[in-house]
Design goal:
Elements lengths: L1 E7 L7 H16 L2 E7 H6 L1 H19 L4
Parallel strand pairs: 1-2
């Protein structure tokens, strides 16, 4: 499983066009087999442990689902 982590900030997403472009990118990445996780700048700066926990959970889920059945 492949994971892409995006950091979003208002200065880059303050227009409808940038918002739409990012969502198109998500769809393209997902269709290419990537999982996409997005965090805001504030989440990363103000709640880094929460972000880390969510990333760790996603990676653990991916590892469990990619293991061959015993």
């Amino acid at each position: 499983e492949r994971l892409v982590v995006m950091a979003d900030g208002y200065e880059f997403h303050s227009t409808r066009r940038s918002f739409e472009t990012d969502h198109e990118l998500d769809l393209r990445l997902e269709s290419d087999g990537f999982q996409v996780m997005r965090f805001t700048r504030d989440q990363i700066v103000k709640q880094p442990l929460r972000v880390l926990v969510r990333l760790t959970q996603r990676l653990d889920q991916s590892r469990r689902s990619s293991r061959p059945a015993a």
